[in-house]
Amino acid sequence: MRFVVTKLEGAYIVEPEPHKDSRGLFGRTFCAREFRDHGLVEAFVQCNTSWNAQKGTLRGLHYQLPPSCEAKLVRCTAGSLWDVIIDLRPGSPTYLQHFGLELSAKNRLALYIPELFAHGFQTLEDATEVFYQMSEFYVPEMANGLRYDDPKLGIRWPLPTTAISEKDQSWMLLQ
Questions:
Q1: 62 is catalytic
Q2: Residue 175 counted as domain residue
Q3: How far apart are CA 12 and CA 6, in angstroms?
Q4: Cβ of 9: how many Cβ atoms within 10 Å?
Q5: Is 119 labeled as catalytic in the residue annotation?
Q6: 90 belongs to a structural domain
């Protein structure tokens, strides 16, 4: 695997280095030793999947509050999406800055998201599936979010929003 540094400290694009032959390819998508060597979470306690019927579906921007902060490893297993993270670490030089990239079944990239980062995505194709590995269990009373369209964040989503939950539309705007 290759770990590509993003503009937000601690967040990485994780590229598998596939071995190809006449059958296709084989590559690791996670290795605890390599993650540990990069100072990243090396154990995940929960895996989630999200299937999205419609292109333009928006999910997020989600995070969990202390003491239940979670790191995530996110990849797209079918279709494609625009993935966005926001640095929420107080005192960070990139506080409230965001980073986005396309994850797709075709490019096989993953995004490692550190603790205290908000995360969301918008599907670029119908029938897009996302696979998440989480470092902490989901704790509903610690779940929080940011508005996807908050002007203070200035995120440019690639498509008009075709589907979004009532909860994701109702997060408070930043002051």
A1: yes
A2: no
A3: 6
A4: 12
A5: no
A6: yes
Residue 173 in any domain: the answer is: no
Give how far Cα 66 sits from Cα of 2, 36, 115, 134, Å: 30, 22, 9, 15
Label residue 124 by pLDDT band (50, 70, 90): very high
Task: Flag whether pLDDT at 25 surpasses 90.
Answer: no
> What average pLDDT is seen over the chain?
96
Residue 102 to residues 76, 78, 147, 153, 167, Cα–Cα distance (Å): 9, 13, 20, 19, 24
Catalytic residue among 12, 62, 119, 138: 62
Q: Is residue 45, in this structure, part of any structural domain at all? A: yes
Range of the domain at 57: 2-168
Question: pTM to 2 decimals?
Answer: 0.95
Write the CATH number for 97. 2.60.120.10
